[in-house]
Specification:
Blueprint (H helix, E strand, L loop, with lengths): L2 E3 L2 E3 L6 E7 L6 H14 L3 E6 L2 H4 L8 E4 L2 E4 H7 L4 H13 L3 E6 L2 H10 L4 E3 L7 H10 L3 E4 L5 H11 L4 E6 L14 H8 L5 E5 L5 H8 L4 E5 L17 H18 L11 H7 L5
Helix pairs in contact: 1-4, 1-10, 9-10
Protein name: N-acetylneuraminate synthase family protein
Pfam family, one: NeuB
Organism: Microbacterium invictum
């Protein structure tokens, strides 16, 4: 089964759908967001993704008043969340820039009003963050949009994943194997969950959302059949913010996309053949013909 997001088709032997997760790495600055869109486009990714919250709803009660040191001074965690959110006009500016650069864009809504906000902007799909996998009201709102949904499965049990899939349905659904640690250590990647999810949910495309340092784990995911790859991106891993350290800088993103395409070409179709390029070595080296 395949899922179509904008002009791209995911699954069914199509090239891996590469998502540059900008998330909150724009630090509330539209110009940084646009520079990250440029980085993604220059690297050859298919889409960029943001995060959309209504801070008063999505911020856990016990976190709201905790002081946070920020580039704008010390403020409560709730005020920090407000500070880094984009409004409608800012998202329109971001959307226009992404479209100009030939990229799809969408976001992870963290609450039902954010779904409505994104729908008003005409996004082509929605992404469910791992932290929201158990929010059935949010999942129901996303299902009711009729748009494709990409569901990350970090910090979740198989029972919880199954429950989320039951709410969303399997039409126009892409599952993303993930481990929600930032940055993730390789021994926690558990990439064999990619074929395990394919077996558990037949016909549902399965990809990989990574938070590791480097490229090796994401490339191994493609070799194991991941039909989509999502990685956080940043201008500089030393920038202030919680996700930058687990993100790819511009050169790393370029190498990721390049190497994914090389791996896809190298995987082939599983049909054994003798290539024309082998004829010369065969004539030179093979002593017994049959």
């Amino acid at each position: 089964m395949t899922v179509t997001i904008g002009t791209r088709v995911i699954g069914g032997g199509h090239p891996a759908y590469v998502i540059g997760e900008i998330g909150l790495n724009h630090n509330g600055d539209v110009e940084i967001a646009k520079r990250l869109i440029d980085v993604a486009a220059d690297a050859g990714v298919d889409a960029v993704k943001f995060q959309k919250r209504t801070p008063e709803i999505s911020t856990p009660e016990h976190m709201r008043d905790i002081p946070r040191e920020t580039p704008w001074g010390t403020m409560s965690y709730l005020d920090y969340r407000r500070r880094v959110e984009f409004d409608r006009d800012q998202y329109i500016e971001i959307s226009d820039h992404a479209i100009l650069r030939g990229l799809e864009w969408f976001a992870s809504p963290w609450d039902v009003p954010s779904v409505e906000f994104l729908e008003d902007l005409g996004v082509v799909a929605h992404k469910v963050a791992s932290a929201c996998l158990t929010d059935r009201a949010l999942l129901s709102a996303l299902r009711d949009t009729g748009k494709p949904v990409i569901l990350s499965t970090g910090m979740s049990t198989m029972e919880q994943i199954t429950g989320a899939v039951e709410v969303l349905g399997t039409d126009d659904l892409v599952l993303m194997h993930a481990t929600s640690t930032y940055p993730m250590e390789p021994e926690e990647a558990n990439l064999r969950m990619i074929p395990a999810l394919r077996e558990r949910f037949p016909g549902v495309p399965v990809g990989y959302s990574g938070h590791e340092r480097g490229l090796q784990v994401s490339l191994a995911a493609v070799a194991l059949g991941a039909v989509a790859v999502e990685r956080h991106i940043t201008l500089d891993r030393t920038m202030w913010g919680s996700d930058h350290a687990a993100s790819l800088e511009p050169a790393g993103l370029q190498h990721l996309v390049r190497d994914i395409r090389i791996i896809e070409a190298a995987l082939g179709d599983g049909v054994k053949r003798v290539y024309d390029s082998e004829q010369g070595p065969m004539a030179k080296l093979r002593r017994v013909a049959t």
